[in-house]
Amino acid sequence: MSGNSMFAIPAGQQASLWLSYAVVLLLLPVCAAIAGVVVGVSNRDQSPEDGSLVRQFLLFLAIFAAATWGISRLPSVQSRINPEVKVREQLSANPAYEAIRKYAPSDAAKVQAALGSEVGRGVKLEDAFVRIRPLFATLVRERLGFVDQATAVAWAHVMRDTLQQMKAADPQKCVRTLYPEPGVPHPLSERVLSDASAAAFLQAVADVYASADAGMRRDTVRADPRVDLQALQTEYRLVQEQTKGEFGDDAGRTKDRQWREANPAAYCDIVLRKMQLMLQREPALAGSLLRQYLRGDFHGDIG
Length: 303
Hints:
- By secondary structure, the protein is an all-alpha fold.
- It has helices at 13-42, 50-72, 75-81, 83-92, 95-103, 105-120, 125-131, 133-143, 149-169, 171-178, 195-215, 229-247, 257-262, 264-279, 283-293.
- The chain has 2 domains: 5-83, no CATH class; 138-293, no CATH class.
- Helix content is 71%, strand content 0%.
- Helix 5 packs across helix 6 and helix 10 (171-178) packs across helix 14.
């Protein structure tokens, strides 16, 4: 089986049926034993003909076999005996995966390939979803330009919380979240985030895809207030001035790789403060600022 072939199975109904048949066949002796006990108990102190006993036995055997079949078809049972069903349940339970599959088939192919690669190496699907979080973040960054202001603000809250947790674990992880290094494990692929934050991250990815899909449609009419580009640039300069007033000249060094690598905690503090200042703006302005900032549209990379 190839790395991602398990994610290309449409329904797996044939395999599911064969597994149910196998369960019934394996439990048929048990059904027969139970049917025999029932027939014996029901005919206690009686002397029916052999033909009648056989008919009763076959009737109860059919009832118990049918019950076994029905139980084997229950979703809770299928998820235990059929790996494909369990995989489908895990996939559909992941909001990010479901949204990407629904709104962006080409991106879904990338996600499926990444999941298949991880699972092919023996990684559990649950852990595979953690390991491919960097891919989710990359795909979101590519679509941020199409989301509405509210979704941009929501994504910024999630990213700020993520960066705060990375910094608490290790300031270098905070830097690597925004500036990955080839050959170095991406912090998002590790179990650094709390369960609540990890769930919020996946839901935010789903929300970005839904909003971006609407934003890319010609028939979508955005209710977002228009924010002039010049006003946006002016407001960003005010944010820069505020951070410079708090952090001094370091506020202007965030795009300097050498300084950033030598001062990861200071870099993260400045980025987190900038995001906080933007979030404090009125919603329309905050959403427009953060949409640009988190894409790296203000003078290049995020800093």
